Amino acid sequence: VSERTSTVFVVDDDEAVRKSLRLLLQSAGLTVEIFASANEFLTRYDPQQAGCVLLDVSMPEMTGLELQEYLNVHGTIIPVIFITGHADVPMAVEAMRHGAYDFLEKPFQNQDLLQRVCSAIAQDRANRVRLEQRDAIQERLISLTPREREVLNLVTSGKANKVMAAELGVSQRTVEIHRARVMEKMGASSLAHLVRMVMDRRPA
Amino acid sequence: MVTLPQTPASRSTLDVQALMDAVTAAVIVVDAHGGVQMLNCAASRLFGYGASEALPSKLEQLLPDVPAPSRECEVSGFASRELNARRMDGCEFPVRVSIARVANSEPAWFAYTVHALDDVDQLQARMMQMSRLATLGEMAAGMTHELNQPLTAIANYAQAGRWLLESKPPDLSEVNDSLGEISSQALRAGAIILRLRGLIQKGEIRREPVRLDEAIHELQGLILMECRLQSAKLKFAVEPGLPHVMVDRIQIQQVVLLLLRNAIEALDGQPRDQREISIHSAVRPEGVEIAISDSGPSASRERRGPKLAMARSIVEALQGTLGYRPQTPNGACFFFYFPIAQGGEL
Fold first, then answer.
1. Nearest residue, CB atoms, B163 vs list A28, A63, A91
2. What is the pLDDT of residue B346?
């Protein structure tokens, strides 16, 4: 999954700014796509594409903040870095509250830009890896039988085999067999690993 | 102590002279024959009557050109006009006089409120000049933001060029393109500075042929920013190539900003998804119109703040018209228009 290329999506209504950003980021070895408006971005962007968005705050029609809101509502996880022409505190606060990854003021230091773009891309990768793992755990959970599921719940809530056997009305030996099956199906290397997988899933 | 005829009992004990003296504008109260009944302190001062001097008995001693009060006041109830006033020492000076009939007075009494004209005019001119300068300042600030665009592009192209040169083998044709872009962005920055300089030189109010769409276009950055801060959606429908009108460009931009802010204020209590502002243009027989409407409550329109008053005085000083029409189902629209400039004036 992390082998997939990350792309920097540049959304800016000023032609010179977006083209210069493309060249700059390309010459730093990054893959870049440019968009003249929020609408153009929304029509062409596939949420499966990894990377980050460099977004101009003030554009006509749909502003950067509105685009961010749209992405939030549609569960898109790609990090957004806002670019603004003026340090406008209320807007910065608003953007960060809407989950912006970072904020850059024009004109910016190129090193600064590159650093933040790279850290946003790393964040996006980590997010995507975590999501895929979560999906994988979900799939494994679905493969458990109802009884195995019961055992899983009891194990992860800290019950000993003897207690479980009593609660489920089966022999301790049967519990042990179920427990081994759960560990195998879930791909857990230890009890701690199993607990962590179940905990990770919980916020979803 | 003077008691006005037929005042309600509860008010008859009020010392009317003290009340009048507390008013800072000059007020003269006369009867239907022009006989002076009262003069407040501000009026005595304005007309040069000291405390020891006998007060004039007839209105015409103070306002020689004023028509007999009854006729026009009976009809219109209220009138305001500019004419000459005469001080006690015989000196004449221009004033603006408002006339109102005292309610419930029988026989009729009339109150004359007198403003020395140079005061009013000078004050208004100074206020207009000051707020015009404030608008200039805002536009200059907007242009400095605009400067950021080419400067950002230049910085990007320059850094990209350096990285391209460092690559092995260096991509010289890309570097060459970057240098070309840098020079054209530098020229773009120069053009913005030139416009900024032109703006600063426009110190004096000057009526000249102006295309309202161009004047408003220069404001677009500011307009967008203001709408964004209030989370208002902006519908911008100003047609390009509008006929010329004779106005002061900066003052008109100021009027647009005043009306825009007036509209934005009306959105205060609205849910965020219902905040809308639109700016429209129209060419009509009476002239070129710019209308700014909002989705605020119509009722709040009765609240006509200082922004609107300022916009109106600027538009009227430029011989245009400012008006209001309600919107359906709610909201308000303020518009102004100026007659199309005659070909000879272009």
1. A28
2. 40
